[in-house]
Every structure is written in C-alpha cells, then in structure tokens.
Design brief:
Number of domains: 2
CATH class of the largest domain: Mainly Beta
Mean pLDDT: 84
CATH topology of the largest domain: Jelly Rolls
Radius of gyration: 30 Å
CATH architecture of the largest domain: Sandwich
Distance between the termini: 54 Å
Structural class: mainly beta
Order of helices and strands: HHEHEEEEEEEEEEEEEEEE
Number of helices: 3
Strand content: 35-45%
Largest sheet: 8 strands, antiparallel
Helix content: 10-25%
Length: 263
C-alpha cells in the first residue's frame, strides 16, 4: 500500500513536470524554428528610399560601352554620338588599343569633340559615370564636359561640369568656380563619377573615388543654368589620345540592406 501511494505521487510529479514543460515549448513549428536560430538576424535599412519623381522614371537608364560598333569606326552618327554642333570633323573613333569591356573603347584625340545629347533628365538624382584611360605618354590638355543646355546651332549653350586632364601639370583640374585639383593617374583605368541632384541643384565630381569638388549644377561653370542634363562633350583640344569606356547615366543604386546580428 505504501509502495502504491509512492508510485502515485511519482506519476503526479511527472505529469506536473510535463504540463509545465508544455508551456515553455514553441507553440508552432515556425516559432520553434525561429527560436532554434541563434543569434537572430534582422535586416535593417541603411538608407531610406526616396520616392523617385516621374521625370526620373520616364528618363530611365542610358549607357554605352562601344562594343557593338566596328573597331576603328567613326562615332559620328552612331548610337546618338556626333561631332560638336553636328560637325563630322569633331568625330572620334572606336579603338581596341585599350578597353575595360572588350573589344572597344572610344579614343578622344586631336580634333575630337564628341557629343551625346540627353532628354528628360530634368529633376531628381543622377549618377554620370565614365571610365577613362590616360596613356603614360599623354601630352596636352583634354576635357570632360557636361552641359545643362546644348543645341547644334550653338544658340543655347551652358556648361555645368568642365574638368581638365592636364598632361603638362600632371593634374586633374576643375575649371569651375569651386576649384580643386588631384594628381593625374596614367596607365590605368580610372572611374569618373559625377553625382547630380537636380532637385537641390548640387553636383559633386569624383576621380578614382576621390572628390575633386562639390558645387552647384547650374552655376559651377557658365552660371545661370537650368535643372537639366543636356549633353556630354568629350573634347580632345588637340591633345594626344585618351580613352573612355563604359559610360552611363543612371539613377542612384536602390538602397541596400545589411544584416545586423542581434545577440
């Protein structure tokens, strides 16, 4: 009788423990899997996303890597490119001497004054990127130019960016009001990146990841400009060849996410 009573007490204790244990267990398979993961990973937004204006969505992306054109061909009349004021004498030629994406880049030399116009880029944030290769024996001064107004007749012209690649000084020189110089890099592909905010009228130029200057879009060079990306001009100014490849005009990247570990 005593043994039976002890057994009954033991059974009750086991049942009580089981009941308490059931409250501490996950209620679903999903919560059980979640609780089994340690530490917990939470995805956190690093930069808030800004709603894109209609003009930005409408304009879309533009890029050219010169690889779809025949090597050594004139760019005047191809892919929207032309000589300054639509003059064939300002053309430039594709080249396979140097290329960041094979087979071609475009060689800017001698009389080259190569223009590409854009339309619809009138508000929002944009990034203009070009990769540039300057040979070791480069001589002269060659210019990278962005305009906020351009027409072939030359009646409406306004410069926003004009950067001088100076082989005599071995410097990259901003010719605009903000000034700024950096050492010229030769015999390597270098990224030129222009960060443009048309809504807030700002512009910053980066050379190989270093900021050359930051200023306004409408007043940096000509002054009294407008909120518009009208054209790029790759102007050789009778200098020896330099090469451009993988040129693009795009919105900023979509905000990215990084996992933050919670312990």
């Amino acid at each position: 009788m005593k043994k039976t009573r002890q057994l009954s007490i033991a059974v009750r204790l086991i049942l009580a423990c089981m009941l308490l244990l059931s409250f501490s267990l996950p209620l679903t398979r999903q919560s059980a899997q979640a609780s089994a993961t340690s530490p917990t990973t939470q995805t956190t937004l690093i930069k808030p996303q800004t709603p894109q204006p209609a003009a930005l969505i409408q304009a879309g992306n533009w890029s050219d890597n010169f690889d779809s054109y025949a090597t050594d061909s004139s760019m005047h009349g191809q892919g929207g490119w032309k000589g300054w004021q639509n003059n064939p004498a300002g053309t430039a030629y594709t080249s396979d001497d140097h290329a960041i994406s094979t087979p071609n880049s475009v060689s800017i030399s001698a009389a080259s004054d190569l223009v590409h116009e854009y339309a619809g880029f009138t508000e929002g944030e944009w990034i203009y990127t070009a990769w540039q290769f300057i040979p070791t024996d480069f001589a002269g001064e060659s210019y990278f130019i962005l305009l906020n107004q351009y027409d072939d007749a030359g009646s409406t012209l306004n410069w926003s960016v004009q950067v001088d690649f100076n082989g005599t000084l071995n410097q990259v020189v901003n010719t605009g009001t903000s000034g700024g110089t950096l050492p010229l890099i030769k015999d390597a592909w270098v990224e030129l990146r222009v960060e443009i905010d048309l809504t807030h009228d700002t512009c910053a130029f980066f050379y190989d990841g270093q900021q050359l200057y930051a200023g306004t879009w409408t007043a940096e060079v000509s002054g009294s400009g407008i909120s518009n990306i009208a054209a790029v001009d790759l102007f050789a100014n009778n200098a020896s060849p330099i090469f451009y490849d993988d040129i693009s005009l795009t919105p900023p990247p979509i905000p990215y996410y990084l996992p933050i570990i919670l312990r």
